[in-house]
Hints:
Elements: E1 2-8, E2 13-23, E3 26-37, H1 41-48, H2 53-72, E4 77-82, H3 84-88, H4 92-103, E5 107-109, H5 112-123, E6 131-137, E7 142-148, E8 151-158, H6 162-166, H7 174-185, E9 192-197, H8 199-207, E10 215-217, H9 218-229, H10 233-238, H11 244-247, H12 250-264, E11 268-270, H13 276-291
Parallel strand pairs: 1-4, 4-5, 6-9, 9-11
Antiparallel strand pairs: 1-2, 2-3, 6-7, 7-8, 10-11
Amino acid sequence: MKLAAIDIGSNAARLQISTVLHNDSIVSFKRVEYVRFPLRLGHDVFNFGALTPESEVRTTKLMQAYKLLMELHEVEGYMACATSAMRESDNGHEIAKRIEATTGIKIHIIDGQKEAELINNVVVQALDDRQYLHIDVGGGSTELNVYVNRQKINSKSFKIGSVRLLEGKETKGAWRKMEDWVEDNIDTSQEITAVGTGGNISKLFNLASKISDTETTLAEIERMQSFISGFSLEDRINKLRLNADRADVIVPAAGIYIAVMKWAGADKIVVPDLGLKDGIIQLVYGQLKRCKPNF
Length: 295
């Protein structure tokens, strides 16, 4: 059985198709297809408050392409979710309805709390009983979650993201609110480790020196931010081989991870290969299992 997730973010839209694997009583998901396309919806919304007709056309075409890929893979269940850009757009819901009418793909515009919940459902599997601060940086928002003994203690979504920072459209006072929240919700008497999710931290992690297969240090993230920022945008693309839509946002995104880690006193960061798309697939599996008693 194959399941799929479509994640429509402020920077890019992703399709992930995974096979469901059963090993005795253990269920796992193996990625068999992954496509990412840089729609950059946040550019429209954070500057103009709404999606442009051009963005609607491109998003519709992309959903048609994703639908064809899902049909070729004979996907049995899927869900499409849109986050910060589309939920803040004045015409986001209207466009989602038109896209569904054209393509048959229903886009669920989810709030920050639901977005964090879906990500947390898979991230918690990578944690132990220590204190963790989960940092998920997207194009339009940053979700923070505090875990102790694998239990979520508190969470908050902030309107600070890589595309929003690039456009200079972060909400007034958002940095101070985020810093205050971290200070109010972190137990500084205990050691804390950061957990980073999002495309930018994954790329930074791939470039950085590592403590283990999934862990690096704050110092390494700072070093990589400084290293990348020393290149022009053209050289980031041609010499560092970064995608064009990654090359411009990776430095401001790194700044968010660095700031939050410093506020929390976290010297290390775990970077699991997990994100919203994985949480969506897990949700789809749960829904199908409930609908099919003999699944």
